[in-house]
Structure formats: structure tokens, C-alpha cells
Amino acid sequence: MSHPQAPSLDLRGKTALVTGASKGIGKACALSLASCHAHVITVARSKGDLDTLVAESGGRIEPWAMDVTNPEFLRRIRDLKCLDILVNNVGTNKPMPITEVSEDTLDLMLNLNVRAAFLSAQAAAEVMQRAGAGSIINITSQMGHIGAANRTVYCMTKHAIEGLTKAMAVELAPHGIRVNSVAPTFISTPLTAPMFENPEFYAEVISKIPLARVGNTEEVANAVTYLASDLSSLTTGDSIKVDGGWTAQ
């Protein structure tokens, strides 16, 4: 008598694509998915950083040195024979008071955090629809659930992607495609390191996290890997907050 196969984190035979993969959260996600035996395509502008990542993965990662805002990137996604997992990670932030936000800064963040994320998910969904299955994971932020001073544009873009996540989940469910987000708190990365050098800022951040510490990239990657796997087969339209309890209060 055969028994049903238990769900697992084994991603053998799956193809994943991770944007913004050269450093920080994206790099951790790529390495985590590769450790679960997925074929991982990593996208970033820096060829050198991607070559380092390939070496760290033992050659299990395929590098695409590309700008996600380049139409050629979207064409390359659509040309894939299969795509099982998209980790929509690329994004940027420029904290400043709302009265100091220039139109160039606004356009930069809307273009990268919202437009590029939408178009990447759109292209991935087309490929996934052909197979009738897939998992799209948008990296958002706890700032996609709350507001914060000096982060008006960032909060706006991350709230937008949380909304996109829900809408895509509803629309794509009949095609067997799940769409979720992972919303981290402040994570120790090359991007945040200069911020934490300010002791007052660091103390303020820690005071708002009940677990009393910032996160690490592997903790975000763990949530991503769960959503990429069949352990999360009934989870769609949701946001996993890897925030140490920040948004619970």
C-alpha cells in the first residue's frame, strides 16, 4: 500500500529566480533555495558579486548580470521553459522628511520598488500559468503594514506591493499559482550597517522590537524557503512578518 508523500523543503527539480541577489536578503534567499536543491537563477547588476555567489553555492546558481528595469530582463523571464519560484526582492530606500523628497527620488523608488516588481511578477506569472503551478514571493517590509517618519515613499511602495500580493493571489489561484509576501523588520545587511552606526537610531529600533534585536538575512530566507516549498501549499495572499513583534504592538 502506497502512502502519500510527506510535504518537505526539498525543491529538487524546481527552478527559482531571485532578483537583487548579489547581497543581503537576496543573497541569503538564493543560497537557501540552492541548499534545498532548487536550480536558482540570480539577478543583479554586479557580475563580480554574482560570481562570488556562484562560488559560494558550489556552482548550483545560474547568474544573470542584468538590470531588472531593462526590458531585456522581462523578455528573458518569458523565454524560460519553466519557472516555479520567483523571489521579488529588488528594491531601495532613501529615508528623508517628506518635504525633502525630490521628484527624482520619488520616481526612482516607484520605478524600482513598484513598477519593476510588478513587471517581474507579471512575466513570471505568464511562465507559471503554462505549467499550472508556481510560487511568487514578494519581499516587502514591516513598513508595508505600518507608517513611519521619514519613510513616506518607502511605506507607500511597500503598502503597494502588499496590495499587489493579495490581488495576484486571488487572480492566480485558479491557475495553481500562490502569491505571498515576506515582511522583515530591520535586518543586518550592507545597506543597513551605516544606519546602525548611529547609536541613537539603533537604540530606537531595538526599543520597538519585542525580541530586542535586529534580524539576520537567514531568518528572512527561512520564511521565503517555506513559502517556496510545498509545506505552504495552502498559503496564499498572506504576509509573513519576520519582524520580532514590531507590528504586534
UniProtKB/TrEMBL annotation:
Whether Nucleotide-binding counts among this entry's keywords is no
Q: Which InterPro entries did the record assign? A: L-xylulose/Carbonyl_redctase, NAD(P)-bd_dom_sf, Sc_DH/Rdtase_CS, SDR_fam
- Taxonomic superkingdom: Bacteria
PROSITE patterns assigned to the protein according to its UniProt record, in alphabetical order: ADH_SHORT
Query: Entry's CDD domains?
Result: SDR_c
Q: Does this entry carry the keyword NADP?
A: yes
Q: Which UniProt keywords apply?
A: NADP
A family per Pfam:
adh_short_C2
PANTHER family with a match to the protein in the record: D-ERYTHRULOSE REDUCTASE (PTHR44252), D-ERYTHRULOSE REDUCTASE-RELATED (PTHR44252:SF3)
Q: Which family does it belong to?
A: Belongs to the short-chain dehydrogenases/reductases (SDR) family.
Subunit composition and interactions: Homotetramer.
- Name this polypeptide is given: NAD(P)-dependent oxidoreductase
